[in-house]
Write a structure and sequence with these properties.
This protein has helices spanning 15-24, 63-82, 98-113, 124-130, 152-165, 211-217, 287-300, 346-365, 392-401, 417-425, 431-438, 451-462, and strands at 5-6, 8-11, 31-34, 51-52, 86-87, 91-95, 120-123, 140-144, 148-150, 169-171, 176-181, 188-193, 196-200, 203-205, 225-235, 246-249, 259-262, 268-271, 275-276, 309-320, 326-329, 336-340, 408-410, 415-416. Strand 17 (259-262) and strand 18 form a beta hairpin. Helix 1 crosses helix 8. The protein has 493 residues and is α/β, with parallel strands linked by helices. It has a six-stranded mixed β-sheet with strand order 10-3-2-14-22-21, sandwiched between helices. Strands 15, 17, 18, 19 and 20 form a five-stranded antiparallel β-sheet that branches. A four-stranded mixed β-sheet has the order 1-13-12-11, with no helix packed on it. The chain is built from twelve helices and 24 strands. The chain folds into three domains: 1-87 and 148-224 and 321-383, FAD/NAD(P)-binding domain; 88-147 and 226-318, 2-Layer Sandwich (D-Amino Acid Oxidase, Chain A, domain 2); 387-480, Orthogonal Bundle (Arc Repressor Mutant, subunit A), CATH 1.10.10. The chain is 30% helix and 21% strand. The longest helix is centred in the first third of the chain and has 20 residues, at 63-82. Bound molecules: flavin-adenine dinucleotide.
């Protein structure tokens, strides 16, 4: 596929792979990131609650506890330079009775020990004075002001975009099939992919739900992953202000429970469920799962307006058998690094995990990698202009400069032709990638109106026919042919 020798190949371009790629791109190293998907983010980093947790949930001393609160601080530091939409809205864990209050006190203690700023328990009445739509049954709540909501699509793109600016190469639709080791299986020599061999002496396993399978390729069977599905509803923006913060019930053995929260773009999000399954790629939703979501959400906010639902989705947690993140630079084979089994609060922890992993690599792999700083490292990047959010004078200025800013393609999210053209210039190749970059198709009609226009613009900009455009790569063609080219005779084309 390429004759080049890479210092490091990262497998997986979710938030873990993307934050690692950016962190490593500050050094004079040849780095490639591969992902089997046609657009990023595609795994758990695409389908989650998008909460940047404060850090009170995890048992002090666990790996998760070590990285969650520092990850939260890093998002607040990096959102500006990397141009990521982040809202510091705080979060509440709600308690209904005396048992729940004990639980809140435990979380308060954990929060203090994990270094979470400003955590406190407030009464239900104090909560309702700020958030009038929450249940009258809530007696107490743990308030954590540092909780944030992030646009998870933008965050992954931002870290990866900045890494690419700093020389990292991203290979999409490139699936790891095997790790090539020396005859004595003590050294990493490269990887085999569906697109050929790639030479490297260091492989970082950031393959999310498949990270146990990747570890096994290197001879590491110290953990396994149990896919755990979480289903959600997204509601229209006109009910996005029903609550102003993230609301959780008291956690149980199954996880943090069904939440109610605004999204970074002011939709309302409810979910997720938590159901263990065999499949590593089934992200369908179910009648039972969605009913559980609504019932759970209404315990916190009784007036959840189900009629305002615009779509449903589900994501798969990579639950590791160790019950914690799996981190480490292996002694054998040399050159294999795990950042694996990263379930919640993995999105939050990722920037801190990346910093820690680079320090570990310096210590353990310093003999094969030179960590000389890159003098021309650029720590900042800008996202495509978010037309809808701009002041009117700025909209007029942009449209005067480039008339494609005056062509609204997605009317729900007010996305212009110029933004879609810019997304293609930055690497979008599919309808899903345009949605991830610009939000075209993410609104109330879910692409019903703008989908064909997006296909048309993608085809024009990529210089291919509309029939070649896919929804998300592979065989997911958007169109099967031109209407008048088709005729059916007894079932034959
Ligand atoms: C329902 C749900 C809710 C969550 N809510 C939150 C939350 O609110 N806050 C929070 O902090 N965390 C949350 N999380 C956890 C968070 O989403 C994950 O911890 C994080 O996204 C994991 O990132 P990752 O990069 O490890 O994995 P992923 O995002 O899954 O990325 C792994 C990548 O590896 C690629 N890959 C896999 N196998 C191969 C292969 N063989 N070859 C090439 N590429 C491969 C995949 O295509 C994928 O792109 C939630 C997770 C779920 C599922």
């Amino acid at each position: 596929m390429t004759d080049k020798t890479y210092d490091i190949i990262i497998v997986g371009a979710g938030i873990v792979g993307a934050t690692l790629a950016r962190e490593l791109s500050a050094y004079a190293l040849e780095i490639a990131v591969i992902d089997k998907a046609a657009d990023i983010p595609s795994g758990a980093s695409r389908a989650n609650s998008a909460m940047i947790h404060a850090g009170y949930d995890d048992k002090p001393g666990s790996i998760k506890a070590d990285f969650c609160a520092p990850g939260n601080r890093l998002y607040q530091e990096l959102a500006g330079p990397l141009d990521i939409t982040l809202r510091k809205c705080g979060s509440y864990v709600c308690g209904f009775d005396a048992n729940d209050l004990k639980h809140l006190e435990k979380l308060l203690d954990q929060g203090k020990r994990n270094g979470v700023p400003g955590v406190e328990i407030i009464t239900g009445d104090a909560l309702r004075a700020k958030e009038p739509h929450v249940s009258a049954e809530i007696a107490h709540a743990l308030w954590a002001p540092s909780g944030c909501i992030v646009n998870n699509f933008e965050a992954v793109l931002a870290f990866m975009d900045n890494a690419q600016q700093n020389g990292v190469e991203l290979f999409l639709e490139t699936e790891l099939q095997d790790i090539v080791l020396s005859d004595d299986r003590k050294e990493v020599l490269g990887i085999r992919t569906n697109r050929g061999f790639m030479r490297t002496s260091v492989v970082i396993n950031a393959a999310g739900i498949n990270s146990d399978l990747v570890a096994k390729m290197a001879g590491d069977d110290s953990f396994s992953i149990e896919p755990t599905r979480g289903e959600y509803y997204i509601m229209d923006k006109n009910v996005g202000n029903l609550v102003g913060s993230f609301f959780f019930p008291c956690p149980t053995d199954k996880g943090k429970g069904i939440t109610v929260a605004p999204t970074a773009e002011n939709n309302l999000l409810i979910g997720p469920t938590s159901v263990v399954q065999e499949s590593r790629d089934d992200t369908s939703t179910s009648v039972d799962g969605l009913k559980e979501v609504v019932d759970g959400a209404r315990l916190l906010v009784p007036a959840i307006p189900l009629g305002m639902a615009i779509t449903t989705f589900s994501g798969l947690r990579a639950s590791a058998s160790t019950k914690d993140f799996v981190l480490g630079v292996l002694d054998t084979p040399r050159g294999f690094v795990n950042v694996a089994g990263i379930k919640s609060p993995g999105f939050t922890s990722a920037p801190a995990l990346a910093k820690h992993t680079v320090e570990l690599m310096k210590e353990k792999l310093g003999d094969r990698l030179s960590f000389a700083s890159k003098p021309d490292f650029v720590p900042e990047r800008r996202h495509i202009p978010r037309f809808e959010a701009l002041p009117m004078e700025e909209k007029i200025r942009l449209a005067a400069k480039d008339p494609r800013y005056a062509q609204i393609v997605c009317r729900c999210e007010m996305v212009t032709e110029a933004q879609i053209v810019e997304a293609v210039a930055r690497g979008a190749r599919t309808v899903a990638a345009v949605k991830i970059w610009t939000r075209a198709g993410a609104g109330r009609c879910q692409g019903g109106f703008c989908g064909p226009r997006v296909v048309d613009i993608l085809a024009r900009e990529l210089g291919v026919s509309p029939e070649e455009i896919t929804r998300h790569g592979g065989h997911s063609r958007y169109l099967v042919g031109r209407t008048k080219d088709y005729w059916f005779k007894g079932g034959e084309k």
